[in-house]
Every structure is written in C-alpha cells, then in structure tokens.
Design goal:
The protein is about 70% helix and about 0% strand. By secondary structure, the chain is mainly α. Helix 1 runs antiparallel to helix 2.
Length: about 140
C-alpha cells in the first residue's frame, strides 16, 4: 500500500510542478514544442528514484529544485545557464548530495546522458562510465 501511495504522491507532485510551469509567465510557448520533453523525463526520473528509495522528500528536494532552475533558464532561452545548471545537477549526483544512495545517484547520472541534449551538459563526464557499461563492467 505504501508503494501505491508513494507513486500517487510522486505523480501528483509531478503534475503540480508541470501545472505551475504551464501557467508561469512566458509559459511553455517561450520554447519550441518538445524542447522540454527531456527535462520532464529527467524530473520524472528523480521522482521515481525518490519513490523507489522510499526516502523522505527532503533527500531529493535539492535535485527537484535544481531541475526547476534548469527549467527557468530553458524557458528564458538561456542556453549557457541551462548548461551550467545541468552540470551543477550532475555534480550534485556525483557527490551524492543530501545523502541519496549511490545506486540512485548512478542511475540518475546515467539517465541524464540518455535524455539530456548534448548542448546542455558536459558529455565528457559520461565517457568513462559509458565505456565501462559497454564492456559489461560495473559503473564507477
């Protein structure tokens, strides 16, 4: 039952964040259609990891807040600021800030490479991890 409740809570939080963004000044019309899909996917991944870990909201709230900063820069068309904010997000994952598990941090870090357009993050951070995954070695 707790898992179902947590999933519902995560879905409700995601919908709330999405609705706030839609009615924010500038709205989603400030970017091209589909431009935010990767960011929505990244936010959803953070919420899923929070639910999986059964963690308190406070463990993942800094990550949600950082992605909210990314979204604000994206809506304002500030590509360089999006790049800096996404790299800060990746630094947070690498340092496992707020005490998130190594497994959750690694999954989110790897997923970030998959969904985030290369222009918005330092791809070189992932190269050693990807080469390890391709030969079957565990993630660093």
């Amino acid at each position: 039952m707790r898992i179902i409740r947590d999933i519902r809570w995560a879905a409700a939080l995601f919908l709330l964040l999405t609705s706030v963004i839609v009615v924010a000044p500038g709205g989603p019309g400030a970017t091209l259609a589909g431009e935010q899909d990767w960011l929505d996917a990244m936010m959803q991944a953070v919420l899923v990891e929070q639910t999986k870990d059964g963690s308190e909201t406070s463990l993942f709230s800094p990550y949600v807040a950082q992605l909210a900063r990314v979204r604000a820069h994206l809506l304002n068309g500030e590509s360089e600021a999006v790049y800096r904010a996404m790299n800060r997000f990746m630094e947070m994952l690498q340092a496992r800030e707020a005490g998130i598990s190594q497994e959750a941090a690694d999954r989110l870090f790897d997923y970030c490479y998959v969904v985030t357009p290369a222009r918005y993050h330092d791809v070189s951070r992932h190269l050693h991890r990807l080469s390890g995954h391709q030969v079957g070695a565990p993630s660093a």
